[in-house]
Specification:
This protein is an alpha+beta fold. The chain is built from eleven helices and twelve strands. The chain has a five-stranded antiparallel sheet with strand order 2-1-5-4-3.
Length: 403
C-alpha cells in the first residue's frame, strides 16, 4: 500500500476511536454515511453495502450509492442470511469472481443483473465480537486487483470500519445506561416512602370494600344494586392504583434473581398452556416453533421472574388487539446465546416510541405508568441478557439470555 492509502485507512480508524467520545446518537446516521463512502473510495468499489447484526438478525445499515440499498431492512432470504452469517462466523474474506453463476449469491441475482455486478468481495467485521459484514461490488472484473497487498489493505479497512461501529455500540449502551440512571434518580427516598404509605392505605380501603361487597351480596334491599355498583368501582380503582404503586416499587429495586437450570422449551410450553387454559385471552391464537437444540440443553434463569416477563409482554400484546401470537426459540452456540421471540399481529408500535419503549414512564395508555416493560428490561438485564423489539409486518419482542 502506498502512503496515501495508509493515511486514508488510519484516518478512518482514528475516526472510529473518536466516535465513542464525541458523537451523539442523533449524528450516527450521518457518520454511517461518511464511513461507507470512505470505504468505497479506499476499496475503489462501485457499490458498497454495510450489514450489521442486531439480535442475531442481519439488517442493512448503510449503502453507497445511498438510493440503491434498502436501508434499515432485514435480510429476509433464508439462503442469503445463512451464507452471510457463514462469512461472519468464518471471519474470513470471501471473494466471488462470477456472482451471476455462483449459487452462493442466488439470493441477490436480481441486484447483480440490474447493477451489472462482475465480482463481489464479502468482508466480515468483528471487534470484541462479531458486528456484521461489508460487501464491495465491482462492475468490471479485474482479478489482478485482488493481490496480496490489496487484500491486506481490505483487512485493515475492515478493522477500521469495525472499530467505528463497535465504538458506536459502546456509546449507545453507555448513553442508555446514563438515561436509566437519570430516571432512577427521579425516584428518591421521599417518593418511595409516599408509595409505601399509599400502598398500605389502599390495602385497607380495598379490603373494606371487598368485605362490604360480600355483605351486600346477601341482602335483598332495593338500594343494594346501587351500593354494589359503587363498591365494585372502588375495588376496580383500588386494583389499578395497587398496580401502579407496585410497578413503581418494583422498578425502584434492583431485581434479585434466583436462577436455576431449566429446560427453556418446557418452560415456554407450560406458559403457553397456562395462557390458553386461563381463559384470560380467549380471542388470541397461540403458536409455537421451538428450537429442537434446546431440548437437550439447560438454561440458567429465574422461573418466576421470567414467567412474569413473558406474561407482561403477552398482556401488552393483548392490549394491542392482537389475534395471533407466535413463540419461537433459537440457539446460537457460537455466541453462547439463546433467544425467545414473541411476535404478534396486533397494532404496531409508533416509530417515535421504538427507541424508548423500555424506558421508564414511557406509555401511550391514559392509566398506564410506563413501568411494565421497563421492569421486564430490568429483570432480563439482571439475568445478564437483553431485550429488544422490532416492528415490520409483525411486532416482535426478542429476549436474549446467556446459554
Amino acid at each position: 500500500m502506498n502512503t496515501s492509502e495508509w493515511k486514508e485507512i488510519k484516518e478512518l480508524f482514528d475516526f472510529g476511536l473518536d466516535l465513542v467520545h464525541t458523537a451523539s446518537s442523533k449524528k450516527f446516521d450521518k457518520i454511517s454515511k461518511i464511513i461507507v463512502e470512505s470505504a468505497a473510495k479506499i476499496a475503489q468499489a462501485d457499490r458498497v453495502c454495510l450489514m450489521l447484526l442486531r439480535q442475531n438478525s442481519l439488517y442493512v445499515e448503510e449503502g453507497f450509492p445511498l438510493k440503491e440499498h434498502g436501508i434499515g431492512e432485514k435480510i429476509m432470504s433464508d439462503t442469503g442470511e445463512k451464507f452471510l452469517k457463514g462469512v461472519i462466523d468464518s471471519r474470513t474474506m470471501v471473494y466471488i469472481p462470477h456472482p451471476k453463476t455462483d449459487i452462493r449469491t442466488n439470493y441477490m441475482k436480481g441486484i447483480i443483473e440490474f447493477y451489472c455486478v462482475a465480482s463481489i468481495l464479502f468482508v466480515p467485521l468483528y471487534e470484541e465480537e462479531d458486528i456484521g459484514l461489508i460487501t464491495f461490488d465491482f462492475q468490471i472484473e479485474n482479478s489482478q486487483r485482488f493481490n496480496k497487498d490489496y487484500l491486506v489493505k481490505m483487512r485493515f479497512l475492515a478493522n477500521a470500519v469495525a472499530k467505528a461501529f463497535w465504538s458506536r455500540r459502546v456509546h449507545c449502551k453507555n448513553e442508555e445506561k446514563m438515561k436509566r440512571n437519570e430516571k432512577m434518580c427521579a425516584l428518591d427516598e421521599n417518593s418511595l416512602r409516599v408509595a409505601h404509605s399509599i400502598r398500605t392505605n389502599l390495602a385497607v380501603i380495598g379490603g373494606n370494600a371487598r368485605r362490604l361487597n360480600k355483605i351486600l351480596e346477601k341482602t335483598n334491599k332495593t338500594s343494594a344494586d346501587e351500593i354494589k355498583e359503587i363498591t365494585k368501582n372502588i375495588i376496580e380503582n383500588v386494583y389499578k392504583m395497587e398496580k401502579i404503586v407496585g410497578d413503581v416499587l418494583t422498578f425502584s429495586k434492583i431485581p434479585k434473581i434466583n436462577p436455576h437450570l431449566h429446560n427453556l422449551n418446557d418452560f415456554l410450553k407450560r406458559a403457553i398452556a397456562d395462557f390458553i387454559f386461563s381463559g384470560a385471552y380467549p380471542d388470541i391464537k397461540f403458536n409455537q416453533s421451538l428450537d429442537k437444540k434446546l431440548n437437550d440443553l439447560k438454561v440458567n434463569f429465574d422461573v418466576n421472574l421470567l414467567d412474569a416477563c413473558v406474561a407482561d409482554i403477552v398482556r401488552n400484546v393483548y392490549e394491542a388487539k392482537a389475534k395471533k401470537i407466535w413463540f419461537r426459540t433459537k440457539t446460537n452456540i457460537r455466541h453462547g446465546i439463546v433467544s425467545i421471540f414473541i411476535a404478534n399481529d396486533g397494532e404496531g408500535i409508533d416509530k417515535t416510541m421504538m427507541k424508548e419503549i423500555f424506558s421508564p414512564f414511557m406509555t401511550t395508555k391514559p392509566d398506564g405508568t410506563g413501568l411494565g416493560l421497563a421492569n421486564v428490561k430490568n429483570i432480563i438485564v439482571a439475568h445478564g441478557g437483553d431485550i429488544s423489539v422490532a416492528c415490520n409486518n409483525k411486532t416482535e419482542f426478542n429476549i436474549e439470555l446467556p446459554l
